[in-house]
């Protein structure tokens, strides 16, 4: 198994170009199943999650090419409506093919995604939406089967603004008869990107990016060209890395508005963030002493849970007591024990972590427990005294394109080595 070896006490300096967003590309790829036409996507990041989604689509009948960030895909017909355990187990986002399959063929059989390191992650809200649109749901042998000869528009209230449920229901509703209203919808930028993609195919979606999304069903959808939005979580990770190492980094290819909650917190901590609107870039730097923070993760436009672990790596060496409260997932603190092995002083009480800033972290052998936990440990490794070895980096490869290469471009000494 591969690991990262990170030399500590490194300042990140220079420029880094942010890739297309994994969490926008995945639902958009699933949405490509809604048309028999050709879909051409650019700025698709080369990540294991993207390859997994392409494999899922291929098994369902899609044909594609993928090179240099461009996917050209078409699905003349759906040859199978089943996503098996091996694929869904690798990546929960495979479940996003359920809405498109149901819309296009009236049937979908998908392995139940299990829990994972960050929580139980049920799919009840996805199913509630499909049922409201007239689908019959049956469960057994670890699979969910949904059938609906013809989906019919309806109003769906989401008890929590789930990103995946909003996307899945939106994709099911675009070909349904009549109007669907999703209330208490998630407002994440990736949902807006998916809606723009679908609308350019001929869908009629209004209100994406707000709490109420209205979808008027259409008969069919055409092929389309689409460029995936920049990855705000990748951008945020490099920004946090710049501040944690007291460096100076220009992150290029960003949409500043998507980063508002992070920028606010970095400035509150005493860092400088300067926008270069013409270049779609942000300069991030930190010179003096930083101040502790109180952070609460929330659905967008709140502080993203996907940047919580990285922020904790930063706060671990900020003098004073910081408090980080995780409200989106019930168990997203697996990185805490690993950070503590590096000398951090973090105590968990319920859904909050109390971080007492220490003078310095010390390099150690640690393990990535999930994608963002892995990124946090790399940041901690850059800050620490001595050498850190981060194991289980297959988690990091799920979501960061050429991570170590980009970090080396900023002066970091980080190497990928086999065991
Ligand atoms: C591929 C992708 O885009 N992943 C992102 C997506 O995940 P994902 O779409 O899985 O996240 P959700 O917004 O659905 O989950 C948020 C919360 O809602 C709960 N829930 C969700 C669905 C459901 O049917 N029932 C239910 O109770 C979950 O267990 C969790 O506690 O949004 C998360 C929240 O911003 C991010 O951390 C993930 O990176
Ligand atoms: C949690 C994440 O992804 P997923 O929903 O695919 O597990 C993430 O991107 O941080």
TrEMBL record:
Residues annotated for UDP-N-acetyl-alpha-D-glucosamine binding in this entry: 92, 121-125, 306, 328
GO biological process, one term: cell division
EC number: 2.5.1.7
2-(S-cysteinyl)pyruvic acid O-phosphothioketal carried by residues: 116
One Gene Ontology term, aspect cellular component: cytoplasm
Enzyme class: transferase
Catalytic activity: phosphoenolpyruvate + UDP-N-acetyl-alpha-D-glucosamine = UDP-N-acetyl-3-O-(1-carboxyvinyl)-alpha-D-glucosamine + phosphate
MF-aspect GO terms: UDP-N-acetylglucosamine 1-carboxyvinyltransferase activity
Residues at which phosphoenolpyruvate binds: 22-23
Major site of localization recorded for this protein: cytoplasm
Pfam families: EPSP_synthase
Positions of the Enolpyruvate transferase domain: 6-407
Active site: 116 (proton donor)
Key words, A-Z: Cell cycle, Cell division, Cell shape, Cell wall biogenesis/degradation, Cytoplasm, Peptidoglycan synthesis, Pyruvate, Transferase
Pathway this chain belongs to: Cell wall biogenesis; peptidoglycan biosynthesis
Subcellular localization, as worded in the UniProt entry: Cytoplasm
PANTHER family reported in the protein's UniProt record: UDP-N-ACETYLGLUCOSAMINE 1-CARBOXYVINYLTRANSFERASE
Function: Cell wall formation. Adds enolpyruvyl to UDP-N-acetylglucosamine.
Assigned protein family: Belongs to the EPSP synthase family. MurA subfamily.
Name assigned to this protein: UDP-N-acetylglucosamine 1-carboxyvinyltransferase
Organism: Carboxydothermus islandicus
